[in-house]
Amino acid sequence: MSPAFEPALWYSVTAQDDNDACENSADGKTFEVNPCYSNGGKVIIDCGLCHQSMTILSATLLDPQPDVS
Q1: H or E element in which residue 30 lies
Q2: Could you read off the pLDDT of 2-32 as tens digits, one per residue?
Q3: Structure-derived torsion over alpha carbons of residues 9, 10, 14, 18, reported in degrees to the nearest 10
């Protein structure tokens, strides 16, 4: 189950590719996405190689939030 995200906030997210046919899924490799924006409270991270959605393992709300001007 994916972590709950509040809308319009920035997070540090750890994701994993579970597509066995993709080399990014080898050896339990994980990816850090920081910063990651929760658009409408939803976060979708796609693999850059196989273009399938990755499994979000954890998310930490950034504090302080980035100043995006």
Answers
A1: strand 30-37
A2: 689 999 999 999 999 999 999 999 888 999 9
A3: 60
How many domains would you assign to the chain? 1
**Alpha-carbon gap, residue 50 to 25, rounded angstroms:** 10
What whole-number distance in Å separates Cα of residue 65 and Cα of residue 15? 20
Closest CA to 17 of 27, 25, 6: 25
- Is this structure's pTM higher than 0.85? yes
Q: Is residue 69, in this structure, part of any structural domain at all?
A: no
Strand partners, 53: 46
Segments forming the whole domain that contains residue 39: 10-61
